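Record type: ASSEMBLY
Status: queued
Input:
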Amino acid sequence: MARVIVDVMLKPEILDPQGQAIARALPRLGFDGVGAVRQGKRFELELEGPADEAALAEVRKMAETLLANTVIEDYTVRVAE
Amino acid sequence: MARVIVDVMLKPEILDPQGQAIARALPRLGFDGVGAVRQGKRFELELEGPADEAALAEVRKMAETLLANTVIEDYTVRVAE
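Status: finished
Output:
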């Protein structure tokens, strides 16, 4: 059994109002030194088999179809250590 | 300038209906071989200075205060490669 991580983030050119709200809230809460924040999603998938190349290709298809909106989001797929 | 990643996931004992909905949708969409899915949040913070131990301690405080609800969520802080 393997665990695969899919990270989904807004594309750099897409405005991220959630991240901006966090970045603006930080100084008010006494935190300085953070220039920008982007918020995204993280999925942990427990595979029933090994995380071989075929399984990772399937996960990439899931990310395209279900987990990410590829018009505005980028995704990365990696095997969890 | 350094980039720090904060991953926030529901604690293992907390039910994750979003993840369950995804896990149930996958076979309907023709994807087999995934046993369980958990969904969480991923934050990318651009630090104005270096990601030294002091800066990472600050980021951990931000995660406790603002990014995670530590009653139901765990977080990890790491420097992006």
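Annotation: DSSP finds two helices and three strands in chain A.
Annotation: The longest helix of chain A spans residues 53-67.
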